[in-house]
Specification:
Helix content is 4%, strand content 27%. With 206 residues, it is mainly beta. It starts with a strand and ends in a 9-residue tail after the last strand.
């Protein structure tokens, strides 16, 4: 199912009876869409991608979503400030990618997630200051990327995190202490390559 390129669509109330999407649900390029109201009954999606919706501020209507079979991608939503709509998710079977959301300040809506089966990508979220919303996350099955988040000052929010199945990449986070990033990496079980570089020398943004 694709919902895209609707110039005057402000919400999704016409989908109020929708409870599951077995394959792909893509919501993109809807310039006037401010909320996902209408998806409150949605509990299952095969693959979810929400991107380039310039006026979308939150994902609250997804609060009943408990199961995504494959990947979740949230990117390029310039007004998105919150991921609270993902409060019902505990396990992400595929990958989770949160990137290029310019005013997203926290990941608090992901606090119930304990494991991610494939990759976790956190990239280019320029207002993201901390990772406290991932305090319950223990494992990532494949690669973990924390890159180019200009306002990120600490990795301390990953309090339960123990292991990465393959590669660990933490780099180009200008306000993140390089020393803290290295210490964080040293405390993990990492299956393959560790790349930690070009983070701030000593919290230069503080």
């Amino acid at each position: 199912m694709e919902i895209y390129d609707n110039a005057v669509l402000t919400d999704l109330t016409g989908l109020s009876n929708l409870t599951s999407v077995g394959a792909i649900l893509e919501i993109y390029d809807n310039v006037a869409l401010t909320s996902l109201d209408g998806l409150s009954g949605l509990t299952f999606v095969g693959y979810l991608e929400i991107y380039d919706n310039a006026a979308l501020t939150n994902l609250d209507a997804l609060s009943s979503l408990a199961n995504v079979e494959y990947d979740i991608e949230i990117h390029g939503n310039d007004a998105l400030t919150s991921l609270d709509g993902f409060s019902g998710l505990a396990i992400v079977l595929g990958g989770l990618a949160i990137y290029d959301n310019g005013v997203l300040t926290s990941l608090d809506g992901l606090s119930s997630v304990t494991s991610i089966g494939y990759d976790l990508l956190l990239h280019g979220n320029d207002a993201l200051t901390g990772l406290d919303g991932l305090s319950g996350l223990a494992t990532v099955g494949r690669d973990l990327y924390i890159t180019d988040n200009d306002a990120l000052t600490s990795l301390a929010g990953l309090t339960s995190f123990t292991s990465v199945g393959d590669d660990l990449d933490i780099h180009d986070n200008d306000c993140q202490s390089q020393a803290e990033a290295e210490a964080f990496a040293a405390g993990l079980a990492v299956g393959d390559v560790i790349d930690v570089y070009d983070n701030g020398a000593n919290h230069p943004c503080n």
